[in-house]
Amino acid sequence: METQETFSFYLQREQSSTKLDFGSDAMALLDLSANRRIAAGLLVNLLSSICIVFINKWIYVHYGFPNMTLTLVHFGVTYLGLYICQKMDIFAPKSLPVRRVVWLALSFCGFVAFTNLSLQNNSIGTYQLAKAMTTPVIILIQTTYYKKTFSTKIKLTLVPITLGVLLNSYFDVRFNLLGTVFASLGVLVTSLYQVWVGAKQHELQVNSMQLLYYQAPLSSGFLLCVVPLFEPLTGDHGIFGPWSLPALMTVLFSGVVAFLVNLSIYWIIGNTSAVTYNMFGHFKFCITLVGGYLLFHDPLSLNQALGILCTLAGILSYTHFKLAEQEEGKSRLAQRP
């Protein structure tokens, strides 16, 4: 009896050990698979985010394709891509009242159109740095209209960001008034859009893909009404002009890349931490700047380089303090009974 009990004990122990080993192996495989998916998602976002800037700039420089029409193509391809995604059960669409997303759709039009116009009329360096001003403007909007408060440390990080952008713009040999106007409008409308999209997601209880699924066709409709008023329909550089096949293929490809940017951002936010997303954003910021100077031979003076470093230091500081405050807030909530 004792022998049988001893045998039974060791058999159970061996079985449980085998299960444990099997479970550990399975967990290791799952972790490896998850890490590969995250790496693939980050790679798609990296390539698409950088490529969309260079492809759009290439289209403007080498083909002269009309800006708003390019934006309209991006909206159309994005909606088509989201439609395919919801058919594949990647996300579930949610019925939303049109009147509650009209202003958001309008701001989406302005955000993309003015950003593209800034890219068309500025060097990639100036275009990229101007986008960094979105953070100070968002803080200004939230402080003024939403009565939100920010710590002194966060406010101080806005000084090097703003100083760096001004320094780069002042010493940019390709500086022009029209490009500055478009960059400023782009920053203002982008900031409004980002504030509103956060509020709408909370108000309507939807995620970014569900909201974009309704925004994209609405924004396309608005642009479709406006495009003929601002861009020629026929002739050279007209919407229905004699475009070459490579030009049309490049435009269509840019629409696909624009969709991949939106899709990969949504995926990264859902599958990684805020730290990963923000740090990855800074890496893309640097790569895009370097690529602009290498591919399009944008001139870079010492003062501009100092401006870029100043802005980057401000962005990194802002991210560090913002994430630290978020972690502190989470720990306080966890300690509450």
UniProtKB/TrEMBL annotation:
Belongs to the TPT transporter family. SLC35E subfamily. The keyword Oxidoreductase does not apply. This is Solute carrier family 35 member E3. Keywords: Membrane, Transmembrane, Transmembrane helix. The keyword Membrane applies. It comes from Liparis tanakae. The chain crosses the membrane at residues 38-59, 65-85, 101-119, 125-142, 177-199, 211-230, 250-269, 276-296. InterPro entries: EmrE-like (IPR037185), Sugar_P_trans_dom (IPR004853), TPT_transporter (IPR050186). It holds the Pfam family TPT. Residues 47-318 form the Sugar phosphate transporter domain. One of its GO terms (cellular component) is membrane. It is a multi-pass membrane protein. It is found in: Membrane. Putative transporter.
